[in-house]
Write a structure and sequence with these properties.
The chain is an all-alpha fold. It has 9 helices and no strands. The model has no long low-confidence stretch (mean pLDDT about 85).
């Protein structure tokens, strides 16, 4: 089987379950804080099917993966459908949305720390080591989860960073409405034209956790 296809399949599987855990974390925290919306809609499940978003979970990752099949590096990225919640039901009206929003990136950071530190302790590998496959998986889990955590902290609705921004700062009503009504367009513009802004943050976090430059694996 072609090596590029195998790597693509590994990345897609890891991305899929990383975004599912991200969204389930939102719903679990909302449920803990008094809003059962996600639980009642069947979104507190690790089954990926209820979480899939046609563009974010399928089309965008496929488009971004095209360079892999030509032997070139690529960043596999995407998202799942946001878990619904009703902020009016949350126990803490001001900070509740921020806690719900921060749960997803916090989960991704936790996964990145666990697998990134494991990567730090098993590298470098001796030639012919049976752990080579595990290293590829650990790298992918660490990098993808750092990417998801940092990307989601960008303050563009519906990303989690916008919930933190609206809780921490007194954003004018008209500004908030503009951001929420045009969020998807702004998000696409950021992905295709501004994504390079956060790449150094992702790379820096990866090196800090693993002690390895991500280019070693790309």
């Amino acid at each position: 089987m072609d090596g590029g296809f195998i790597i693509f399949a590994i990345y897609i599987i890891i991305l899929l379950f990383s975004v599912v855990l991200h969204e389930v974390s939102h719903g679990a925290v909302a449920n803990y804080l008094g809003d059962p919306t996600a639980r009642m809609m069947g979104r507190l499940t690790l089954n990926p099917l209820p979480h899939l978003d046609m563009f974010g979970s399928v089309i965008l990752p496929l488009l971004l993966a095209i360079p892999i099949f030509f032997g070139m590096p690529a960043i596999i990225f995407g998202w799942a459908k946001p878990v619904p919640y009703n902020p009016n039901n949350l126990r803490y009206k001001k900070w509740g949305p921020a806690l719900v929003g921060g749960a997803g990136p916090a989960t991704n950071i936790f996964l990145a720390l666990v697998f990134g530190l494991a990567l730090r302790f098993i590298m470098p590998l001796p030639a012919g080591s049976p752990l080579t496959g595990a290293v590829i998986v650990f790298f992918a889990i660490t990098y993808i989860n750092l990417l998801l955590a940092i990307f989601n902290m960008v303050p563009i609705p519906p990303l989690d960073g916008s919930k933190l921004m609206f809780s921490m700062f007194n954003v004018p009503y008209k500004t908030r409405m503009f951001l929420e009504q045009n969020g998807f367009l702004l998000l696409l513009l950021f992905i295709f034209f501004g994504f390079k802004i956060i790449l150094p943050l992702i790379e820096g976090a990866f090196v800090l956790i693993t002690g390895i430059n991500s280019g070693t694996f790309m």
